Each structure stands twice: as C-alpha cells, then as structure tokens.
TrEMBL record:
This is Response regulator transcription factor. Residues 141-206 form the HTH luxR-type domain. The lineage of its organism: Bacteria, Bacillati, Actinomycetota, Actinomycetes, Streptosporangiales. The keyword Phosphoprotein applies. Gene3D superfamilies: 3.40.50.2300. It comes from Actinomadura napierensis.
Length: 211
C-alpha cells in the first residue's frame, strides 16, 4: 500500500511496482486513508510519505508509527525529502524488524529502492545512509564508540542501514569472515559480548543511534 499526496509520484510508484510484479493493494493521499486501508486488509508492506494533508508536517510518520503499533507484522518503508529526527529515531529505535527510512532522492535509484522495499517486506531493515549520518552526527565523540576503528565504524554504519554481514562484505569489498571479525570486535568494544537474551546486533545499532 502507498500513501503519497503527490499524484504524479504516487502514480509513478504504482506503475513502477506493478512492472516489478508487486501488487499495490491501495494508493492513497493521506495518513488517515492509509490507516483505514491497512485496517481493512493489512498488506505485507506500506510505503508512506512523511508530510501529507492536512498540515503537511508529520502526518505520514505518525501514521507509520500507528501502523507499527497496531499491525507489527506490516513492514513500513518511509519516504521523505527530509530527515525528521524526532520521529525517525522513534521509528527506528522502537523495533528494527520490517522498517525502513529512505530519502526521496533514493527512489530515482530504482534498484536501491526496490532492494529496500524487498528487505523491509521480508522483515529486514533499510535505512538511507544519509538518514543514518544525520541521526548519528552528534555521536562521533561519544564513548565507547570512539574506540571503534574506521573500518569497524563503517561496518556498524552499514549494520544501522539494515545490511546483513554478506551484504556488508559486498559493499566494503572484503570477505564475510572479515566482517564477522569486525562485528565481534564491535560487540566487545560496546560491552555487548555477554548480552544474553537480546540481539547484540540490534543493541549495537541502538547504542549507535542513541549515543
């Protein structure tokens, strides 16, 4: 399901997704209509703009958060021209299962957009690198993150975008075993080696986002 108040972009996304064999169950122009559509028949994933009628401020993100709360099995991919830090942080830190946040410029890069949509629909995560950078801009001098090497920070940055170890290895042009070593080093430096009962990967990303 799509929620985008720009008719041109909305119809363009519908056509793109149809050409890629995705079924678009509904395409609406505001957050209330999206919530009503999801309530009628929850889809695998929703794609939602941030700023929509009536105030064009944060209706889309508030709708996304409500969908996450009421239908946790529905993936949510947010598209925005801006990084809305307050709601973006809330969306990301609430649960990293089936959630994504992309800047609209990324839609023009069709393969990246479709990859993000598939990841979110499959229960993974997909965060625009620029979104991650802006959310983490204040964390560069924070301990214990300052103990990470540049390569470890690169790996953690990709983890925060929702990439798997195999995907990180491909992006950084290193072996998967090298990535696994970096990930274990990150866990050690963030004091997460013995975090029994929790996903150390999620905890590392949350530490990164919240520092």
């Amino acid at each position: 399901m799509l929620a985008e108040d720009s008719t041109l972009l909305r119809e363009g996304l519908v056509r793109l997704l149809a050409e890629e064999d995705h079924e678009v169950a509904a395409a609406v122009g505001d957050g209330d209509a999206l919530i009503a559509a999801v309530a009628g028949s929850p889809p695998d994933v929703v794609v939602v703009d941030v700023r929509m009628p009536p105030t064009h401020t944060d209706e889309g993100l508030r709708a996304a958060l409500e969908i996450r709360r009421r239908w946790p099995g529905v993936g949510v991919l947010v598209l925005s021209q801006y990084v809305e830090k307050r709601y973006a942080t809330e969306l990301i830190t609430a649960d990293t299962t089936g959630v994504g946040y992309l800047l609209k410029d990324r839609v023009a890069q069709v393969e990246e957009f479709l990859d993000a949509l598939d990841r979110v629909g499959a229960g993974g995560a997909a965060f625009d690198p620029e979104v991650v950078r802006r959310l983490l801009a204040h964390s560069t001098h924070a301990d214990p993150l300052s103990r990470l090497t540049p390569r470890e920070r690169d790996v953690l940055d990709h983890m925060a975008q929702g990439h798997t170890n195999a995907s990180i290895a491909a992006h950084l042009h290193v072996s998967q075993s090298a990535v696994e070593k970096h990930v274990n080093a990150i866990f050690d430096k963030l004091d997460l080696s013995h975090a029994a009962g929790y996903s150390r990967r999620v905890l590392a990303v949350l530490r990164y986002l919240g520092s």
